[in-house]
Queue: 2 jobs
Job 1
Amino acid sequence: MGRNTQIFTSIFLLLLFSPQEILIQGFEDSASRTLKQEPGRAHEVHCSRERSRTAWGVIEEYLMPFVEQEQYEISSKCRLHPDNDMFRDQEQHKIHVDINEWRCGYCKKSFRAEKFLDQHFDNRHNNLLNVSHGKCLADLCGALHCDFMMNSKSSRSKCNPAAVAKNRHLCESLANRCFPINQGSSASRLHELFLRQFCDAHKCPRKSQPFPKGGRKQPSVFYLAISILTLMLLPIFYLIVYLYQREMRGGTQELKRIPQVGRKAKPS
Ligand SMILES: [Zn+2]
């Protein structure tokens, strides 16, 4: 009996405590998860992934074509250098498989939209982010006209002289740091270009639009549109030619048939 009571008591105790233990463990799990997530969230607060992406897009589209043309090597001290964008490595590990499929390049997990992959990066791979000072590309957005890009290239908002002066200063310091005039002709040409392309538009009242020297994407979009149009029109053109030829052949056959009937009719 004593042994049975002992067994019952232990089973009772087990039933009584194990759910709590599970609960506690679950709580600890989620607690550690939130603790693990917190640094990621902190980065999100301090450095916007979306704005960094826009800034990178601006650099790629409106600066890099000219840098490549000059075969100039941007120094890692320049904040426009890829190493100074904390999201660059993660962005390069995005695999866009299909319209509705984005894959993580680190663990190959698939997602239905880019924003879910962004969340996955924040939750699972935030240890890969280099959060040291000066690595937030979004901080350069003022100089690089991110708002102009994000508001579908319109600058209807009021011109704020203080903000404009600050952005102009940031813009000029980028030109000085990234393309120092004393480092050869390429650097000074790019320095001049950077001022015209990015800094001139920081002026009140707004007279000039940013990126007057143009960029990479515009011609490629134009050529893409032309080639798609050609690909669409080509089959239609061949169809018309085919139908026209068939019509012509049909016409000549009918014409041939008439004299044959005429010839056959003669001997009889
Ligand atoms: Zn992953």
Job 2
Amino acid sequence: MFWRKKVLTSIIELLERKKKILRDLEDKLGADSRRRASEDHHAKRRPRPCGMTIHTGVGCSYSCAYCYIYDMGFTSNVKPYPLKPEEIVYALSLNPYVVPERTLAAYGSVTEPFQPETSNTAVEYMREIWKWLHLPSQVSTKAVLTDELITGIKSGDPDTNVLVTVITVSNRRLEPKAPDPIERIESASKALKKGLKVSLFIRPIIPGITDTELNRILEISADKGIKSAVLGSLRVTRRILRNLENCGADRKEIERRLLKTPRNNKQVEVKTSDLKNMIKKYAEEIGMKVFRAACEANTYFHGRYCAICSMGPCNTEMKKKSMLEESDVKETLEYLNVPYIDVKVNDNFIKIKVKKPKVNKYTMSIITTVTYRKVILLE
Ligand code: SF4
Ligand code: SF4
């Protein structure tokens, strides 16, 4: 009974807490800071399935041949993201889709967060966002994790899932300005020993390269104590295809796997499910846990069951901990002023029979985020 009460109040508590965070930050920040934050895209963007991507810098100097940020208008000139740490927290708190403790935070999606120019900003963002919002954190990096960086990351979410990218250990042309992959793995091992939740990030899987090196990559990583891996596909534009060919990749093999022909700067996914299965098989043989998506790893290391998308449910061993009852959802709907007729809940779905066919999309998104379940509206 005590446990039920705890779950019941926690949903509403979280939404109340968000209001308080906003009030506290409004008292702290000047008008200019509030305006800058409210105009920023972190205040408006809907989180992606992997969570809310948080930009710690603009541009990236690592110049990876497979990188799509250069097709999105970013350059190799790097600058820290222009918001101050408390401004980014305020922007996220203004975002109607973000819920404290529940929205997954993904640092490093359109840049390497730990470049010399951006490392301080990245660490300060991670620390401040954790302090106020407690978002389960994940960061992807190709940087060498120094002692200072490890301490910095741990000053935020102590369970931060650090994804250390390695897709080749021999072809340096693919990542000409990123640190040596062996050094990355060695520093990841150090981070593990200091308590960070490190996973090998095998993304993007480049057909003809990553699959031929997979045994070596996995064995070196396992040998250094890394016990999990996240796999991810390659997406190409015409420019990336040319780059990869220039770096020795088998262009024909990549083209054979394309879902459609890339045009202009549009990214097209390269089918790699067979390669993922191959990597998974060997990784599991040598004792590694394999995640199919970055969010699966983030939820796992934060002890969360999740059934939001069709790839799930994920982390079913944690299901019991996140049991939900109809009354939890009903109370939340009442709190959010959503008129409903009936609510049905199971491990994967929440079905809500609503009085009005149109229910605010933010409301549905909030219930999904808070409960980690799909919401289906019935009229
Ligand atoms: S480190 Fe990431 S963002 Fe930077 S160039 Fe490489 S793939 Fe792009
Ligand atoms: S169900 Fe799994 S893959 Fe889907 S959003 Fe949740 S953690 Fe990610």
